Amino acid sequence: MTQQHQPEAPEPLAKKRKLETAEDATDNKGAQTIPMYPAREKENPNLYLETVHRELLEPDAARLCSVTLADTNVYACLSCGEYLQGRGKATPAYAHSLDTDHRLFLRTTDSVIYVLPEGSLCKSLLLHDIKQAYNPFYSQTDLNGLDTLELHETRPGIYHGPGLIPIHKLGRDGALNAIFHALSHVRILRSKLLQLPNDRDYYAGLPPLLQELSLLFRKLWRRGLRNHVSAVQAAARMSHTSLGVFAQEKKLVPALVLAFLLDTLHRQLGGSRTKPAPISMDTADEKIELPRCAKHTIISTGMQGVLLIQTQKIQELTDAQAPQLRFRDDPNAEATLVPYKILALTLPPIPVFAGGDPGAVSAQLCVTLTTLLERYSGNQFEQLGNTRRRYKLLFLPEKTLIFSIQRTVEGEAHRNRVIVQLPITIDMSPLLVKPQGPALFDLFTVIMQDPLTDDWFAYTKRMVGTQARWFKVCAGMEARQVPASELFVGEANIAFYERQTS
C-alpha cells in the first residue's frame, strides 16, 4: 500500500514592519532619522480630544513651518494652530509635541490626523469639521448648488459667504486678488479644481501650482463665516512657475497674468498646445474645422475659440517715367487659423486738445462693446509695418468668453480711460462667419482699476434668492453690494461672459 503524501503545513508569513515614509522621517536639515513603526489606530479614537482648541486654529493662513519656513510635509497642531514640519523624531512637530504636550497634528495635504509622539492615527468623527476646514471636499451635489448658497449680510450692504471671502492683499495694487477671484467664478474651471482632490493618487502627482490653486478655490467656496483667505502660496507657486516674471511684488498686467495662468493650467491638466494652422485663401470662406489638439482639457474645449487672420503685404512700386512712390496690395494673401482664449479689444485713440490732460479727456468719452468688436467682423484692416491684417471670428468658446480691453500702449505715459459700456447680455452671432442661430453670452465678472489709487478689484454676479445682484470685491476687504450701473462708469479691463444654456 502506497504511503499517501501529506501536504506540508504552510510556513508562517514573515511579519514585515512598514517603515515610515522618508518624507515624514526627515528632520529640518534633510538628514534621515531613525525609522518608526507604522502609524497605528488607537483603540479609542476619541483620545486627546480635550486638547483641541478650535478657536486657535487658522486653516486659511499660509501653510509654512514656523521653524524651517518650509512648505512641504507641514502639519498643523490642533492645540495651538501652529504649522510645523514632519513627524519623525528629529522634526519640529515631534519636538513640539514633547515640549508642549500637544498630541494631535493634522497633515495639511490630506487632513489625516496623527497622535504624537506615539505616531498613531486618530480617526475620530468628532474632528470632521476641522478636516473639512483645512481641506474642503466637494461632491457633485455640492457643485450644483454653489451659485445658490446663502449669503450673510454682516452689515448693511456688506455680504459674506462662499465665493465672496476676501483674500489678503497680494502685491502693490491687488491685481492677483482680482484675477484669483475672477477665475474662481468661472464655472467649468471652478468645478474641475474643486473636485481634483477627490482622486487622491491623481491629485498627489499634480504640479504644485495646480494644487495650490485648487486649495485656494476650495477655501474661497467653503461654507461658514471666515474672515480672510491667504493666497500667498498660490502667488509664490505662480512666480516660481513663471521664473519670476509674474512675481507679486512687481507691477502686473492682469491680462498677461490671466493668459499665463490659462495656458499653464491647460498644460498642467494634461492638455497639448493647439498650433496655428495655415489654410488656403480658396477655402477660407468655406467650411472650416477647428484646429486639431492632441489632448483636450476643460480650458481648450470650454474657453477657447478660433480666429481667421488674413495677412496681406503692401508692395512698393516706382513709376519709371514719373518717379513717385506708390503702394498696392499683394494679391497673394495668407490666411491662418489661430486659437484664442482671450479676445483683445483696442480702444479708440485719445483725442488731442490743446492744453488738456489726455487722461482727463479720455475719461469723458464712452464707447460700446459692440463698437470695439467690429475689429473681428472681417471688415476692418489693421496696418502693421508693411502688412495689414483683418480678423474674422470663426468659432466661439463653448462655455466662457473673455474680453481684454487694452488701455495702455507701450511708449505712452497716460492710460486710455475711455469708458466701455458692457452689456449684461450680448449676441455674438452677427460677428461669426457662418452663424447658426443666436449665440448669447451673459456677463458675470468684470475686473476694473480704480482711476485714483490704481488698485484692482473685481465685480461679480451672485444670486440672492431669485434676484441677480452685483458685488464689489477689493483686496483684503469684504464684498460690498453695488448697483449694476457701476459697471458702466468704471474702467473695465477684463470682462467674463458665460454662454446661455437652453
TrEMBL record:
Source species: Protomyces lactucae-debilis
Signal peptide span: none
Lineage: superkingdom: Eukaryota
Pfam families from the UniProt entry: UCH, zf-UBP
Domain USP: 165-500
SMART domains on file: ZnF_UBP (SM00290)
Region (Disordered): 1-34
PROSITE patterns referenced in this protein's UniProt entry, alphabetically: USP_3
InterPro entries: Papain-like_cys_pep_sf, Peptidase_C19_UCH, USP, Znf_RING/FYVE/PHD, Znf_UBP
Alphabetical list of SUPFAM superfamilies matching this protein: Cysteine proteinases (SSF54001), RING/U-box (SSF57850)
Protein name: USP domain-containing protein
Keywords on record: Metal-binding, Zinc, Zinc-finger
Listed GO MF terms: cysteine-type deubiquitinase activity; zinc ion binding
UniProt key word Cytoplasm: no
GO BP annotations listed: protein deubiquitination
